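User: Second chain of the day. Same drill as before.
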Amino acid sequence: MALSREAREELTRRQAALSGITKNPLWADQVAEWERKIARMEKSLFAIARNQDGAAQRKIDYLRGSIDILRWQINMPNHAEASLLKFLAAQGIQVEEEALV
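Assistant: Same format as last time:
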């Protein structure tokens, strides 16, 4: 499906903005905080699963979903950058890495 010029420009702008997030100096701090939160949630998840009275499936599902969301947030900017580079290459445009910022 061919995109209109405006749609291509909007897609390129959005993906460049998302991939630029990882260039922010505070991004590493945010990722580290999410990873600490994931570790705490996994610890809670294992405690719930080992409960002698039986596991609370709703709590397990909630924690698993929350962990998946945090992992998605961590990986999303890298995926956006890869998608942008792939899209631009398909359009015949070569981009240097620094140009994405």
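The chain has a mean pLDDT of 85.

User: Great, on to the next one.
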